[in-house]
Each structure stands twice: as C-alpha cells, then as structure tokens.
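This part of the workshop introduces the protein records we will be handling. A record pairs a protein's sequence with a compact description of its fold. Backbone structure tokens are a discrete shorthand for how the chain folds in space. The question running through the whole workshop is how a given chain folds. The record below serves as our worked example for the rest of this section.
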Amino acid sequence: MRALTLITLLLISSPIVILGQNVHGVISTSELSNYSIVSKSSSTKEIQLKEVITTKGNWSNISKSLNISNPKCKNQISGKWCRFSHSGLEITYSDYPGTYTFSEMTLSNNNFKIVAKNTHIMVGGSITVLKNLCKDAYNKRHAIPGETNLNQVLLFLEGTDLSISYEYKPSNNTITSIRIYQPIM
C-alpha cells in the first residue's frame, strides 16, 4: 500500500515538475559573476549583481557603486524591511531571518541596466539580446499567467531560490521590466 501511494504521488507530481522545467533556463553561480548593474548616468557607476544579492546590510558599497542614497528602513510585522529606491531601480532587503537578506530588485526604466558578457540588457531594449546570452531560457520564453500583453524570459540561479525575470511585450519585443527576486522564508 505504501509503495502504491508513493508511486501515485510521484505520478501526480511529475507533470508539475516537468512543466516547471519547461518554462525557464538555468544560470550557474559562476555565470552570475559576469552580471553587473550599471547606472546610465555614469558608466563607471557599476556593481556586480552578486554583491547586491549577498550584501547582508553593507549598504555603503551599493550606495557608492551606483551613486544612490542609503535605503529607507521600516519595521513590519515580519521584521525590518529596507528599500533602495532611485529613479527606476528598487532593491529590497529583509532582516526577518536575523540578517539582511536580499528579497527583490526591479529595474523599471532605462536609468540602470544589466551588463552580462558585454551584452547590455535594459528596459526599453529588445528581448532578442538574450537570444545568445541565455539561449535555453530565451527559447522557453512564455506568457505570464494572468497577463494578456506580457511575456517573460525566466532564469533560475542554480542551487538557489533566486530568479531573474525579463518581462517584455510580445507585440514589439520591448523589455518592460527586469526583476531579480527570491522568496524570504
């Protein structure tokens, strides 16, 4: 009976896993070292994406590197949340686990861009720039559930809960936002 229950559970859950694997690509942690965030106002203002994700409350490096002010922090029921917000860039951290943990970064205009392997990825740019950079994810681009005019190219960072979503309009392939996020448990 136990074996039958286990087999039934595996069969029921398998399509979910298979479907999940079909909608995203995977980026390795070593590849993440090639990703930077660059300010439009100054090409010398840049920080590696890996640093933003692993900062653990060291705000000065992010502020200095991107020429933005320190985050505003406030207490919530689930702990303290700190948010950088500067003209098209938002970065949020939570101290719920006891140390500042990266939660989300959103680029909503072209004041900041991501540079990966000399490829510039920005809001307002074409999603086709990802064709060679992350071919597997690009080939698996798909409609965002519940959105009628938005698609996405989705990447997961290998061995983590981190996701990178490039949202775009399929009518003209224009990137509308770039989100990097991970759930805070």
In short: Helices lie at 2-22, 29-32, 49-53, 59-66, 130-133, 135-139. Confidence is low (pLDDT under 50) at residues 1-21. The chain has six helices and 13 strands.
